[in-house]
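Help needed: design a sequence for this.
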């Protein structure tokens, strides 16, 4: 059995990948491969590729498509990693979101992730309708799947109140996270929540077991601009550190980085460095993008990102999974204008290496090997 003894959670930018669909709602494999290369951006973009999350519309996709999606991403990542290694770069990890509506399907997707070669798996326990006892599920059923394969992969928790199956239970209890962190394979959590909730998990992280570190990834990506802002008054800085229990996150998960991988990578770096001028510039630009993706106050992020990437030729079309809010008419035209303004704002004064180059590959053309 492959040991996790020396595994440390990868730091940096995690991009929850969009799913490229053709006009019939099937997986567009060529477009998905182009998208992966776009977000890796020759080593200047994503550190982690998160496949099968909410940005990828996973819960609305049939299980066979989700499995094929992961296989495609793992295969293309192997090719990209060989190219990066030849140039002296670090490999990128593929994390598989395996949460399904039912417990059995979730375990089936987890087993497939192990077989397909994913580097890690991600489960949102509170999104599973028939989960039952969370601790027992991980201690027995998840462990059985991981130990029954030919290798052990790390597993990360996912907390997002918007996805909770029971509206009365929207966040994992801190005491439960502490218990789960004692399992060898549970190595961290992605938190899409306000600062207070993030702080609760940071407190749990300070009690991780001795087998490996327990990492926290910020799911509300623009929150990093507050966490690392050095221009706050001393009391606010002290309060934030107390909320985070002096345990800062190791990475950020940014859906917007599907379109702007280099810009979000640099936003993470300047935030860590405490460069307040650059922090303010990125915070302003990404706030405008978020606003542009909420026409009339309704979130349309997936539709907006797919529209931008299809118009640029990264993916062949902007087909959405059933139930995903769409973008059309005046809202679409307004988004196009706003997106162009954000691109200009992000390009101004930025070094060329941190400006994402848009592909020259015509839409629909298969990625070359």
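Sure. Designed sequence:
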């Amino acid at each position: 059995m492959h040991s996790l003894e020396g595994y440390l959670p990868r730091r940096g930018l995690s991009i929850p990948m969009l799913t490229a669909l053709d006009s019939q709602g099937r997986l567009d494999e060529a477009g998905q491969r182009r998208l992966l290369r776009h977000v890796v951006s020759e080593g200047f973009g994503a550190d982690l590729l998160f496949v099968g999350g909410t940005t990828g519309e996973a819960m609305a996709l049939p299980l066979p498509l989700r499995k094929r999606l992961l296989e495609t991403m793992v295969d293309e990542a192997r090719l990209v990693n060989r190219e990066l290694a030849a140039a002296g770069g670090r490999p990128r990890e593929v994390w598989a979101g395996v949460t399904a509506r039912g417990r059995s399907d979730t375990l089936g997707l987890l087993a497939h992730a192990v077989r397909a070669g994913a580097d890690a798996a991600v489960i949102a326990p509170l999104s599973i309708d028939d989960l039952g006892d969370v601790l027992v599920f991980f201690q027995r059923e998840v462990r059985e799947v991981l130990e029954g394969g030919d290798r052990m992969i790390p597993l990360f928790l996912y907390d997002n109140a918007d996805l909770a199956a029971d509206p009365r239970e929207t966040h994992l209890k801190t005491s439960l996270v502490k218990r789960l962190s004692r399992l060898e394979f549970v190595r961290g959590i992605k938190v899409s929540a306000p600062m207070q909730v993030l702080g609760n998990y940071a407190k749990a992280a300070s009690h991780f077991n001795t087998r490996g570190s327990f990492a926290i990834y910020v799911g509300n990506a623009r929150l990093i601009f507050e966490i690392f802002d050095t221009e706050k008054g001393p009391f606010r800085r002290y309060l934030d550190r107390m909320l985070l229990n002096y345990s800062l996150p190791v990475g950020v998960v940014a859906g917007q980085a599907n379109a702007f991988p280099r810009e979000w990578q640099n936003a993470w770096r300047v935030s860590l460095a405490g460069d307040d001028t650059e922090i303010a510039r990125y915070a302003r630009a990404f706030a405008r993008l978020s606003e542009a993706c909420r026409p009339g106050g309704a979130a349309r992020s997936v539709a907006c990102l797919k529209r931008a990437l299809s118009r640029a030729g990264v993916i062949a079309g902007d087909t959405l999974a059933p139930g995903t809010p769409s973008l059309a008419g005046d809202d679409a035209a307004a988004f196009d204008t706003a997106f162009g303004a954000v691109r200009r704002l992000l390009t101004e004064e930025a070094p060329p290496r941190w400006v994402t180059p848009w592909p020259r590959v015509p839409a629909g053309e298969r990625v070359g090997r």
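The chain has twelve helices and eight strands.
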